[in-house]
Amino acid sequence: MVNGTNKGTKENVFRLLSMISIILGIVIGYTSIINIGINKLYAIGIILSVVLICLGIYFCLKMKSYKRIRELSNNWGNEVNKKRKFEHIRKLHDVLKSKEEFYVDEQTWLDLDMDKVFLKLDRTLSTPGEQYLYHMLRKPCFSQDKLKRTGEKIEYFTTNKDTRDKIRFFLDKLGRDRKATLVEFLNGEFQYSKVLKVVLNLLALLALIAVIYAVEKNPSIGVLEVFGIYFINLSIHSRVKRRIGADTSCIKYMYRVLAAAKNISSLNNCSKNIEEINVLKEEMGKCNKLIKSSASIAMAGTEGVDVFLDYINIFFLMEIRSYFSVVKEVEKQRESIKRIYENIGKIDALISVASYREGLKEYTEPVFVNNDNKLLLKEVSHPLIENPVCNSLNMDNNIIITGSNMSGKSTFLRTVGINALFAQTIYTCICKEYRGSFFRVITSISVNDNITEGKSYYLGEAEALQRIINSSGFDKYPILTLIDEIFRGTNPVERVNAAAEILDYLAKNNCLVMVATHDLEITNMVKETYYNYYFTENVTKEGLNFEYKIREGISPTRNAIKILEYLGYPDEIINNINKRIEHKEDNINLGL
Description:
This protein is of the alpha/beta class and about 600 residues long. The protein contains 24 helices and ten strands. Helix 9 packs antiparallel against helix 12 (about 220-265), helix 12 (about 220-265) packs across helix 18 and helix 13 (about 275-285) packs antiparallel against helix 18 (about 335-360).
């Protein structure tokens, strides 16, 4: 609160200084102009007027800076509602991921609703930030030291408010890359032509000669030459700009990235705690020439500047000539720019996680146990549920969860999967205690028909399970396998027997399995390798009452018929269904 008050005070001071300087400058300037013929000393007044107005503008900019820092500080810990395009957000991940490392696959990301989880977590202020946060969530870490260091940096940003506010201000100035094309630009081929560069330089030289000729030799002919060369250069400018327009937009955002990196790397007081800042400082030493050469292109898109400089820019082909100089330098410093981009993104992502932590009622940092396929969760909850029912579970073996429809089985699977990913990515779990192995999380929860590819529901299930089977048994890190309603897309006889065999196979091949099912027969078929848990409920004609609490054992209730009754299905249908069930159970008991 004190810091917020101080920023508000500084903001008001600079506002007052700005008003005083500008008003005083205007008064002195006006007085000097109307009296300049009377006393030559008034010329000094004009100079003083300009100085005061410039000083007033400086104070105005400082006032706006403090105002924006205050706004950012007031929004700390709050969820951010903004439009996001995941096709843009995932671009950095698609570039950085490699075949040698484990990443959260598309099916698992979809199963765990990770797009929605990302929206809840994302408080980044820049495109590199949101892209790196996405990459971070899809790339679990298997090093306890690295994860602990991640936690230390998040904690640093949580506790060091002044430094955090300054960095967030620089990230806010960097802002968003509207089309998010810089990553592709840095990893693609540049359009560079030595011949065109020479031609452009010659045309710019001719433009300069035409101006000199018009001023020094023959104004009437010189003006015609100036206009002639202007229209030639306008045509050249338009044609080349169509070819390189997308690239110049990338260069403009790259300039902002470099400017942000320069500002952040100047914060020496936090470089010993955040090594990413040292990386920025090191790489910016190689990019000083680039930031100077790209400034002219960056200024070409600045609002207000175009009004005065656009004609000069076209006449001397300034922007497109600068482009060829910039891309040549970008080619030399490509790897440095990539590292700057990634490290700015990482800093923004870590601050985002710190803000997310601030808004949580409860969280904990995970404890990892090597070489032991276990997972302990105490009072764990789902990050997307506002008022969740917390559950505790000690998975020292594979488990089967039974229970009725809507009782909470699928949500609990997702809760476990998301917290396991959080533990190995953002080092933050939504529970009182998290203790477990390092896991590769692979799921089969939300498999759908794929009409466009002609795939049935069952085929989609089979493929989803096959990827888990193919990944099992070959890595020192176990798979945390989460499966909902195994083989629900086929007939009961084949479903139960195929499910039992697959579950036995996974149990023997370095997997910790949690499966939810309605098929109580499976519990007896795999009872040697799986423990039983269930969710229960109370369904009456008055309503549905779900506890959402996990219990040990096999579900003693079924609610499918009760739900039909609750919805008002005809009594004839309800009674006949119950008779069929009773008849089938009697036949089973008689061995028929």
